[in-house]
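stage 2 :: seqdesign
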């Protein structure tokens, strides 16, 4: 296996890249670990090697012998490097900005592109003009001369015959040297424009002000990078045809006027009428494309919500309503795609028959005006009109459409590039040189600021304070008071309207919502800084990460996954804090880092990190935790943006400020300030503005689904004889697929033979370690010499790939899903009949021309006194005899007209039938896959990233919907056309079959040789493209952090590295495609030479036969080339079907419904008693158990608190109760083993308020009651009980108010209350709270607790808690540690043992909090048992446990638990006795 490079290797690679990586002070944060070749063969190649692409042959041989991997990529050429191109375009854009500013006009991005790349682009267009206006016209004229020679016309010698034959061959030869350089040059220009535009967009994104960010979304920016810039790859090809098309038409019209006289106008006029028709069709397709895109977006959004919230959906038993929702969205999408296909069928049928109709009209007019028809006129006219028709009805309208789309894309990019930048608005004064630590500080003087001028109220009002080195300023206040905004003002993110902010020193920042990017834990902490082992270990220690890293599978080299999925909320918060602490800064801005962690961890962070490790630094801490305020040097109290008080703790207490009541205001946990955030609810309502949620993990959605759905194709369905049709189609489908869908696809399989599969299998494994596809793929680099394979081994979710060709059974399943055997047979017969008519029209034209020619000869011989003017002078055939074996002119006209009409009708019928079958198949495949995915166990979603699953529903399904039907249709048409042409040629000259067979053998070998490499180049192109989007998405999510750490340059360099890597793969893709085209065209040229020269030995042939055979040979070679490419593309796209089918066969979880004989009685569970017997849980067979032999019983109506450190198994216990993962052992609810029941019976009878409150897009009613089981009054009553009635009433529509994505138009606290309302509605006997109040403010927490105590008094309640005060009055507390039940008793009794784990957890909250918690526990004990509890903290540890005989007798388990607790002072390694291997728990 090729060794992977680490960051150091890549930094020293002397490639022709931008060199940006080498200039970094430390390894880049994100590197994909690709080893690039150090020498660039391309640069060393001679001009001839370059022209013929022979420099690629060594790579092709390598690809044929083994799979290529990223190490085989060449370095990016210097002129293609992202940094250089970005600098070039940036310079031109800056000049355009200056010019437009001086003239007072809007700047034009299009002008910048023209100034930067215009000359190179124009130069390449001359090649296309030579090809279309010289070669494309010269070749048919030479063919006409050859036919005249064979007709024995006077004045033509054998030398003339050979010269004309050579002219036909030279046309094909010169085509190789004009067409391929043109296409390569034009696509290369498109790539450079795209790369430069991406670099410009990314640089701008890092500079955007928060106000500008509020006007855009990450999705829109990803869309610019994935969709808009892709227009440059395709539109550049067709724009030249806007001037070449009319020029070519004028030349052809002149020649046809010479040949046919005014009769040619009939055909040309019809041809010109096709142009507006195609343009109108293009507009129709654009509208339908847009409609499809909207519907696809909607379906993908629903799928994204479903996949992200699958745990909640399963726990709420909402699979059925969401299945109906997804299927409805899919039906809506398919309906539009089907309408598109009807138009496409008409368009294809018109195109298929248009050449026949145009030629027929021209020749008919010519005959009816009394002229003699000759084979030369037939085939010259036919060839010339075919060439013009292709350019004018395909390339020209496409040039207009693509030009318009590109112009719109340029305008969108332009609007983005002129948005406000942070530097323009920042009013922070910073020192240029870094001062000594003692001189560092922050001074804020009378600052007033607001996020947007659109709001009336200021976010901050007249704030003044200062902090020096060694001081801690605590900022407190209710939600929405401007605490986070104050930090943003210091960072320069929030522009100050008045006042001044002075920052002296280097700043580090820890955001409130932790930002972690996809990489290792270590990379997240180092953040591009040099690694210092001693400092690193110290930071890990003070940030309480030592134990967490021990528990992670790869320690600090564990990949945190997309959006940090493999870390808990508390772990993410600590990694976020560790990044700031590791950074060598003087000023630390900490935005509430203590809320997301357990109380004792919060105490450790405050004492060891903030007050210890950072004690000499300048610190500003935003917090809701009152217990830490005493130790702050100064406290700033904010309310609604105003400074209510500032001073030391004792000063504020003496002034009468009640901190607790101050923090109890507000309704939500303050979020990090977003640009769209309004300062208060009041002003938000006043402005009629509700912030909407922006999902940041949708890079691939925009890259794949939009690109796929918006890529309309004006198709050329006829297989024209000219090579351009090959190239046009190649761009429209093959390259189009790369540019849009396939470029994001990673593991598209191209054909491989079974015999080679075994030889290649070992080498294939090296590709498997590359995580092949994600919406946000892991951005990896293994710095510090870490072994790549080792780091990957622990990661689940890498995709399995099929090796070799797609099996025939996959094709069969696809077609059978569309309508069964009957439809397949009917379709086959319709296709064969259509081809018979298509070939029949060609044959009939030749037959007709030959008949007319013989008739003219006979007339000439019979009538000596009649002169035949070959130049087209009028002649009457009325008295001429019809030759034997031929028909008269009128009959020929009728037969040809009948054949053409029949061809159109049959073509239309079979095309519509084919697309209907494909859409039916697509709909069925989607429904089967969705049914399978929604029924799969939850572990599947934990081990497969969202992007990977979503990719099947977006990119793969998009290919099946949009690209596959067209490509399969092409292949079927080409195959039948090929057989038809072979039959026609064989009927004229049977010996031509010999070179045809030889050509076939060579083509098959070439196909195999080329596809071996093409498969891997395509896959690498996809793998290297995804990080570009991911990097943008991750950068924007952490933009405030990146700018606070001044890491913009590092991120820009990384972006350039990702772009260069993709450019090297894309460049190789362009070159390999050209190489294949050149090879095929050389062979085609030789084939045409053989066929043409072979007729020189057959002097008695008729001109019509010669014309038909040579034009068919030319057509066959072009079609062969296209057929080879399309057959490969079908196989690529069939892998999408294979992958969809793969997800249709996932192993489902247990049955949803209970067997009839085991169904529990109505009203079960009546009590809510829960019993665990020997319950263990492991998530996969290879993992260690996360729950170990749990035995306990929870009595009916008991309130149980569950506590323990992160990873202790608290959430896993709920997982086993809900059977999200099937546990070992038995769980009873009201004495019925839940394993014997259907999942809906179990889950539907347990209510849960999850840790992360999940709301779905749709109405509030649907969020509360998706099954429509309850009346409006019930819903309003539930909302009233959770104090949400007023808030919902204020929303437009009340219960019908539409929730934005993720419910982001409600605060976190309100969303949590909606979950509580759901639980109230369900009236279940068991309620589970999974850390439900961890993210809400004290007031909402109090409200939730109060509601639970009143509404769920007669229910069994299980509460997992971070905040210990929420469970101190529970009936009993369960203490878990490493999956074992360590302690289980009343809180008061556990607190009486000074050595119990629970006591230690409580004591870690601080002395004042401990006293408060003991008081709550004592009062609860006293209320329950009716006797006085000893509440003295000092005497707790020595006094005897109070005796309550009746209570103790009725609870024998308590005696046992207490004794065990006293016997085992917190030994975590022993199996606790109460876990009872021998004794089963009794309630």
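stage 2 :: out
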């Amino acid at each position: 296996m090729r060794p992977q490079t680490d960051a150091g290797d890549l930094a020293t690679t002397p490639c022709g890249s931008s060199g940006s990586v080498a200039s970094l002070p430390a390894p880049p944060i994100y590197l994909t670990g690709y080893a690039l070749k150090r020498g660039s063969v391309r640069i060393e190649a001679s001009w001839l090697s370059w022209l013929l692409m022979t420099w690629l042959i060594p790579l092709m041989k390598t690809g044929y012998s083994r799979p290529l991997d990223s190490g085989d990529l060449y370095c990016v050429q210097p002129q293609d490097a992202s940094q250089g191109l970005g600098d070039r375009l940036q310079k031109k854009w800056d000049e355009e900005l200056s010019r437009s500013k001086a003239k007072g006009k809007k700047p034009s991005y299009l002008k910048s592109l023209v100034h930067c790349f215009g000359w190179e682009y124009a130069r390449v267009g001359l090649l296309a003009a030579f090809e279309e206006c010289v070669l494309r016209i010269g070749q048919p004229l030479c063919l006409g001369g050859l036919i005249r020679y064979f007709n024995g016309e006077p004045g033509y010698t054998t030398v003339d015959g050979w010269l004309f034959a050579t002219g036909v061959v030279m046309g094909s030869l010169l085509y190789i040297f004009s067409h391929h350089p043109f296409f390569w040059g034009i696509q290369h220009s498109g790539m450079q424009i795209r790369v430069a535009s991406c670099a410009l967009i990314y640089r701008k994104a890092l500079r955007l002000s928060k106000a500008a960010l509020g006007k855009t979304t990450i999705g829109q920016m990803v869309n610019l990078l994935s969709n808009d810039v892709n227009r440059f790859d395709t539109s550049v090809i067709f724009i030249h045809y806007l001037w070449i098309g009319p020029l070519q038409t004028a030349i052809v019209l002149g020649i046809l006027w010479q040949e046919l006289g005014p009769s040619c106008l009939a055909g040309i006029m019809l041809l010109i009428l096709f142009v507006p028709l195609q343009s109108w069709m293009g507009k129709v397709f654009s509208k339908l494309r847009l409609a499809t895109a909207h519907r696809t977006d909607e379906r993908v959004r629903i799928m994204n919500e479903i996949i992200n919230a699958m745990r909640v959906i399963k726990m709420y038993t909402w699979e059925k309503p969401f299945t109906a929702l997804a299927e409805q969205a899919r039906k809506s999408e398919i309906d539009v795609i089907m309408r598109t296909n009807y138009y496409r069928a008409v368009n294809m049928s018109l195109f298929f028959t248009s050449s026949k109709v145009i030629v027929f009209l021209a020749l008919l007019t010519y005959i009816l005006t009394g002229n003699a028809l000759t084979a030369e006129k037939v085939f010259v006219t036919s060839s010339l009109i075919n060439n013009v028709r292709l350019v004018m009805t395909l390339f020209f309208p496409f040039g207009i459409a693509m030009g318009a789309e590109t112009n719109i894309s340029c305008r969108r990019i332009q609007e983005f590039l002129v948005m406000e930048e942070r530097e323009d608005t920042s009013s922070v004064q910073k020192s240029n040189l870094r001062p000594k630590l003692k001189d560092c500080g922050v001074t804020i003087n009378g600052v007033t600021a607001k996020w947007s001028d659109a709001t009336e109220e200021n976010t901050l009002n007249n704030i003044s304070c200062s902090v020096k080195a060694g001081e801690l300023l605590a900022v407190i206040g209710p939600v929405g008071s401007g605490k986070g905004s104050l930090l943003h003002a210091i960072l320069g993110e929030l522009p100050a309207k008045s006042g001044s902010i002075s920052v002296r020193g280097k700043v580090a920042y820890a955001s409130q919502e932790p930002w972690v990017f996809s990489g290792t834990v270590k990379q997240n902490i180092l953040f591009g800084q040099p690694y210092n082992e001693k400092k690193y270990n110290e930071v890990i220690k003070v940030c309480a990460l030592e134990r967490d890293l021990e528990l992670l599978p790869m320690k600090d080299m564990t990949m945190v996954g997309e959006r940090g999925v493999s870390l808990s909320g508390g772990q993410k918060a600590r990694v976020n804090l560790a990044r700031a602490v590791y950074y060598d800064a003087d000023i630390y801005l900490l935005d509430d880092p203590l809320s997301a962690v357990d109380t004792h961890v919060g105490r450790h962070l405050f004492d060891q990190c903030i007050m210890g490790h950072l004690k000499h630094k300048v610190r500003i801490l935003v917090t809701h935790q009152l217990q830490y305020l005493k130790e702050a040097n100064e406290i700033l109290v904010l309310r609604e943006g105003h400074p209510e008080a500032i001073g030391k703790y004792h000063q504020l207490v003496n002034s009468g400020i009640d901190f607790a009541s101050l923090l109890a205001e507000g309704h939500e946990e303050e979020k990090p300030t977003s640009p769209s955030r309004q300062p208060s609810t009041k002003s938000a309502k006043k402005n009629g503005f509700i912030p909407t949620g922006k999902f940041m993990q949708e890079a691939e959605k925009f890259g794949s689904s939009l690109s796929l759905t918006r890529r309309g194709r004006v198709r050329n369905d006829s297989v024209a004889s000219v090579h351009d049709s090959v190239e046009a189609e190649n761009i429209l489908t093959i390259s189009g697929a790369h540019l849009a869908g396939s470029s994001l696809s990673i593991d598209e399989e191209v054909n491989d033979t079974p015999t080679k599969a075994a030889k290649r299998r070992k080498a294939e494994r090296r590709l498997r370690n590359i995580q092949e596809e994600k919406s946000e793929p892991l951005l990896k680099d293994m710095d510090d010499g870490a072994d790549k394979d080792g780091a990957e081994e622990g990661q689940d979710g890498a995709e399995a790939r099929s090796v070799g060709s797609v099996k025939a059974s996959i094709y069969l399943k696809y077609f059978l899903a569309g309508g069964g055997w009957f439809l397949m047979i009917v379709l086959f017969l319709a296709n064969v009949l259509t081809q018979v008519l298509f070939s029949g029209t060609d044959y009939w034209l030749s037959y007709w021309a030959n008949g007319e020619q013989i008739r003219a000869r006979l007339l000439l011989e019979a009538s000596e006194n009649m002169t035949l003017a070959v130049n087209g002078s009028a002649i009457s055939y009325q008295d001429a005899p019809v030759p034997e074996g031929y028909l008269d002119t009128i009959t020929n006209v009728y037969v040809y007209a009948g054949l053409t009409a029949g061809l159109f009708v049959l073509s239309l019928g079979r095309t519509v039938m084919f697309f209907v079958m494909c859409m039916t198949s697509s709909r069925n495949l989607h429904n089967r896959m969705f049914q399978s995915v929604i029924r799969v166990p939850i572990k599947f979603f934990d081990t497969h990233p969202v992007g990977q699953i979503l990719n099947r529903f977006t990119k793969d399904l998009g290919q099946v919907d949009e690209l596959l039907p067209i490509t399969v249709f092409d292949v079927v048409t080409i195959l039948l056309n090929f057989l038809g042409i072979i039959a026609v040629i064989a009927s004229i000259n049977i010996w031509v079959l010999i070179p045809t067979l030889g050509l076939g053998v060579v083509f098959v070998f070439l196909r195999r040789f080329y596809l071996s490499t093409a498969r891997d180049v395509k896959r690498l192109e996809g793998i290297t493209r995804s990080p570009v989007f991911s990097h943008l998405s991750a950068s924007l999510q952490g933009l405030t952090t990146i700018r606070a750490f001044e890491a913009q340059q590092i991120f820009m360099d990384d972006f350039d590295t990702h772009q260069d890597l993709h450019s090297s793969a894309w460049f190789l893709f362009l070159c390999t495609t050209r190489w294949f085209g050149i090879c095929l065209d050389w062979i085609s040229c030789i084939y045409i030479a053989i066929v043409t020269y072979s007729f020189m030995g057959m002097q008695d042939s008729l001109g019509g036969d010669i014309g038909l055979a040579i034009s068919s040979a030319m057509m066959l070679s072009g079609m062969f080339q296209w057929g080879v490419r399309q057959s490969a593309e079908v196989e690529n796209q069939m892998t999408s079907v294979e992958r969809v089918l793969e997800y249709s066969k996932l192993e489902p979880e247990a049955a949803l419904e209970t067997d009839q004989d085991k169904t529990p009685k109505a009203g079960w569970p009546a009590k809510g008693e829960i019993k665990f017997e020997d319950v263990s849980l492991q998530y996969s067979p290879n993992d260690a158990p996360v729950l170990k032999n749990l035995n306990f019983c929870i009595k009916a109506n008991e309130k149980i608190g569950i506590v323990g450190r992160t990873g202790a198994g608290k959430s896993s216990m709920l997982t086993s109760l809900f059977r999200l993962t099937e546990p070992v052992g038995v769980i009873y609810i009201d004495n019925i083993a839940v394993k014997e029941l259907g999942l809906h019976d179990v889950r539907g009878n347990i209510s849960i308020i999850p840790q992360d409150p999940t709301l779905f897009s749709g109405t509030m009613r649907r969020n509360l009651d998706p099954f429509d089981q309850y009346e409006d009054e019930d819903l309003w009553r539930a909302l009233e009980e959770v104090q949400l009635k007023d808030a919902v009433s204020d929303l437009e529509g009340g219960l019908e108010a539409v929730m934005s994505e993720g419910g982001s138009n409600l605060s976190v606290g309100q969303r949590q209350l909606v979950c509580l309302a759901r639980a109230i509605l369900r009236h279940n006997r068991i309620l589970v709270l999974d850390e439900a109040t961890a993210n809400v403010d004290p007031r909402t927490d109090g409200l939730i607790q109060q509601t639970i105590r009143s509404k769920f008094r007669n229910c069994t309640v299980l509460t997992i808690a971070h905040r210990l005060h929420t469970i101190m009055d529970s009936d009993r507390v369960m203490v878990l540690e490493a999956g074992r039940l360590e302690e289980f008793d009343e809180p008061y009794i556990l607190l009486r043992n000074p050595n119990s784990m629970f006591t230690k957890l409580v004591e870690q909250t601080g002395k004042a909090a401990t006293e408060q918690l003991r008081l709550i526990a004592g009062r609860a004990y006293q209320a329950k048992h009716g006797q006085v509890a000893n509440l003295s903290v000092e005497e707790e540890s020595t006094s005897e446990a109070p005796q309550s005989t009746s209570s103790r007798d009725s609870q024998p388990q308590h005696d046992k638990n207490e004794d065990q607790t006293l016997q085992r002072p917190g030994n975590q390694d022993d199996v606790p006795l109460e876990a009872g291997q021998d004794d089963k728990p009794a309630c």
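stage 3 :: structure notes
- The CA atoms of residues 1376 and 1382 lie 6 Å apart.
- The mean pLDDT is 75.
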